[in-house]
DNA sequence: TTATCGTTTCCTGCTT
DNA sequence: CAAGCAGGAAACGATA
């Protein structure tokens, strides 16, 4: 059992890193309402001490899963740290997510960033090496993800990216008019969100269009990569009682309330972002998800939540939403009934069944992917 | 700019 | 009584 405990810990670490909580330090109230068992989910990657002073969006997350915005912030961090002349960098070539970044060779980074490329390469691999113990799980999920993309979507876009990365790792995008870019020559507008991110992993848009505008420093000469203007207001029940809050998803923070926020990932990023896929992926790793969920009837696709709140917290971590609960998660699950992604299982609590519009969970499909 | 999608949030009522 | 389920309504952010 020692082995499985270790696997469990690794998985927990991995999940914590991959589905990193939105705050650098999990809020105590979050920890408090988790059970003893759930606390293992909070274990997370410990970055190098030098990184701890700043807590930008990429902080604490595996480089492999950085969004484009996080990559940019990371680059900006090292530009500033090394007092590097950013004008020498072709920022139109920086439109890559962490997945792509991790596939860049030292030479490629040097080509784009000049002498800073070596530094970036070294720093990147320092961070990556910290989480080396997790790479087998990452690889596992990555492989499965690529296979499922090919099998279920017949697009193969992600694998195309993966294989073309070394030779053409970057999308040298022409500057496009768009939202808030920190880059010179782009007139303060970003091309990040304007570029289609087919299968490129995280497709995070760093600067939302309705975040109150005026978030971006328009100074075209300034490379200011640490703008962080995504996030949600943390309304509490008192606000609700006093009628300060409308129904539905909370609005974003106003600018003055943004200090404590982190960036948020896209809901539409292609990498297993949908709730049902997230659930499926947990189920497909029974040896790793110890105690979260289990198959009730593997053939029929019937499954059960064993630790519903823990799964909800995990989902919340993935979506950078610390207020996720099983109640909310289950509402989203119930919407799947209409779309026949899930089927009702009457009279059984916490039990769901995959429907005909779901895929990738059947034993045959799983075997085919391997 | 607008429509749509996939949630997220809140709610009421019901069932286990 | 608590927890879970069902589903309406509205809101949200990302994307097409």
TrEMBL record:
Q: Where is this region: Disordered?
A: 183-268
The superkingdom listed in its UniProt entry is: Eukaryota
Q: Spell out the InterPro entries in the cross-references.
A: Elf-3_PNT (IPR042693), Ets_dom (IPR000418), ETS_fam (IPR046328), Pointed_dom (IPR003118), SAM/pointed_sf (IPR013761), WH-like_DNA-bd_sf (IPR036388), WH_DNA-bd_sf (IPR036390)
Stretches with biased composition (Basic residues): 242-252
Main subcellular location:
cytoplasm
Pfam family membership, one: SAM_PNT
Q: How is this protein annotated for GO cellular component?
A: cytosol; Golgi apparatus; nucleoplasm
Keyword line: Activator, Cytoplasm, Developmental protein, Differentiation, DNA-binding, Inflammatory response, Nucleus, Repressor, Transcription, Transcription regulation
Query: Which residue ranges does UniProt annotate as crossing the membrane?
Result: none
The reply on keyword Transcription regulation is: yes
Which GO molecular function annotations are given, in alphabetical order? DNA-binding transcription activator activity, RNA polymerase II-specific; RNA polymerase II cis-regulatory region sequence-specific DNA binding
- Please state every residue range assigned to the domain named PNT: 45-131
Spell out the subcellular localization from the entry. Answer: Cytoplasm; Nucleus
Against SUPFAM superfamilies, the record matches this protein to: SAM/Pointed domain, Winged helix' DNA-binding domain
Respond yes or no to whether keyword DNA-binding is given for this record: yes
Gene3D superfamilies found in the cross-reference section: Transcription Factor, Ets-1 (1.10.150.50), Winged helix-like DNA-binding domain superfamily/Winged helix DNA-binding domain (1.10.10.10)
Assembly mode: Interacts with TBP. Interacts with CREBBP and EP300; these act as transcriptional coactivators of ELF3 and positively modulate its function. Interacts with XRCC5/KU86 and XRCC6/KU70; these inhibit the ability of ELF3 to bind DNA and negatively modulate its transcriptional activity. Associated with CLND7 and POU2F3. Interacts with ZNF768.
Record function comment: Transcriptional activator that binds and transactivates ETS sequences containing the consensus nucleotide core sequence GGA[AT]. Acts synergistically with POU2F3 to transactivate the SPRR2A promoter and with RUNX1 to transactivate the ANGPT1 promoter. Also transactivates collagenase, CCL20, CLND7, FLG, KRT8, NOS2, PTGS2, SPRR2B, TGFBR2 and TGM3 promoters. Represses KRT4 promoter activity. Involved in mediating vascular inflammation. May play an important role in epithelial cell differentiation and tumorigenesis. May be a critical downstream effector of the ERBB2 signaling pathway.
Annotated family: Belongs to the ETS family.
By what name is this protein known?
A: ETS-related transcription factor Elf-3
